[in-house]
Design a protein that fits this description.
The protein folds into three domains: about 280 residues, Rossmann fold (3-Layer(aba) Sandwich), CATH 3.40.50.2000; about 160 residues, Rossmann fold (3-Layer(aba) Sandwich); about 30 residues. It contains 20 helices and 13 strands. The strands form two sheets. A seven-stranded parallel sheet has the order 3-2-1-4-5-6-7, sandwiched between helices. Strands 10-9-8-11-12-13 form a six-stranded parallel sheet, with helices on both faces. Helix 2 packs across helix 18, helix 4 runs parallel beside helix 8 and helix 14 packs across helix 17. The protein is globular, with a radius of gyration of 28 Å. It starts with a helix and ends with a helix.
Amino acid sequence: MSLFGTRAVSSMWLLVLSLLVLPLQYTQAAQILALVPLAAKSHWNVLDTVLQTLVARGHNVTVITPFLKGRSIANYTEVDISHTLPSGIAMPWENIMGECSVANNLPYLNGRHRFTCDIVFGLDEFWNTIRSHKFDLFITELLASSCDSYVSHHLQIPQILVTASHMNTWYHDTFASHTNPAYVSTFHSGFATPSNFVQRFMNFYDYLYSHLVYKWVDREATKIGRKYFGPDVPDADTVMKNTSLVFINGHFTVDLPKPVLPNFVDIGGIHLVPPKPLPQDIKQFIDESPNGVIYFTFGSTVKMDTAPLHIQKAFVEGLSGISHRVLWKYESATLGQLPDNVMIRKWFPQRDILNYSKVDLFISHGGMAGVYEAIDSGIPVLGIPLFFDQKHNIANVVHWGAGKMLDYNTLTNETLVEAINEMIYNRAKYRKNAMELSKRFKDRPRTPKQEIVYWTEYVIKHKGAHHLKSAALKLNRFQYFLLDIIFLLFFALTTIALFVYIATKSITHKLSTLSKHKRE
């Protein structure tokens, strides 16, 4: 076995041992129910890793999912909903870009999320599952609706949420975890932190926009809850506030520090696995490159061969004009006039490629999984974000000096080549910054998987661990924003001012009268 392979096996054993020796917070195997609200592979990879970590710990997990393993796993049970959910994998460019524009992505996600709730709650398999087991915990994704929180409410068990990205802006109000948009950027923002008046204004606008749109589009969640769980259940937002803990697929070393509640736990990089040796043909293609290699992918959601022809042409012409070889994830077997320096495949072992020493640059759409794989390996990123949080993800990398960002709307082969050449020419600077970011990202007291085990068992052991939640959840908006105090102070100051005014006027009048009498 090669040294590289030995290290991979050793790392895997260390992970297993770390989970085994972690102090057990919950002495019995818990019964955990999980739900997948969106059939998107990148989202599932995060949630699945959380669930498999708990399965490896010895807990029993039942998951309602469209993604089936195809094999038997001890302590792991699947409820198949693949025939009911629309796929979010390899979607046509025109469809996904129209549905996921900044103005429409929250309504789109909310609609998909509520659709899943409506479908799942109407299935006999769902009701048979929750009636035939006594569950201790419910886990679902924090996406764009509160409808699935009715499951934990109905079963009277704690709920843990998992994000596939950094924290969704529209949920800050729900959890009383408001952040200051003067310096904490939002989910949609194209900057790591607002640095001027215009950016602060845009950030403030998006903060308000996200909350108002979410409250509006998620009104139907309450109707879904009352349709399936009874007319007397609370509204969905109230039910959602009972969440015990949120696992965030982010980390402050990348997404910048911000004030967070103790029941918000960073697990950024949870999906990372020890890299494996490369397939021989890919390794040979990389090793025989005289100038290094670039890896290029737009992820699993969008089919690259459905992108507008002028964008595909810009990539083909641009990549053919650089000195590096390129590995390009492209769905079709052919790509017209394929440049000699480009290899295309429908799939590449991305994690293993990015960890290989001769890879100099990662061209990415900015999906969180790929960004963290690049950060973990210390690889600079040239980002061309498309939708959702991708612009913000790339903006964070740019902030730390480990990448550049291009706009796909104005992309040409000239702008692509210019950006690639600039990063390759200054590779020492970009690589140094990427390696420093990687070191900070990996320097943690506990691994993401250890965080998952510790905090999940903590929530179960402490019966929901509600002491971790903000006391602000008990306040109404009038109290939360201190409007009662402000009105009291306003009333007091107005009263004092009025008293002073009347007293002054009275004294002035008396003095005037006295002066008049003296003159007479």
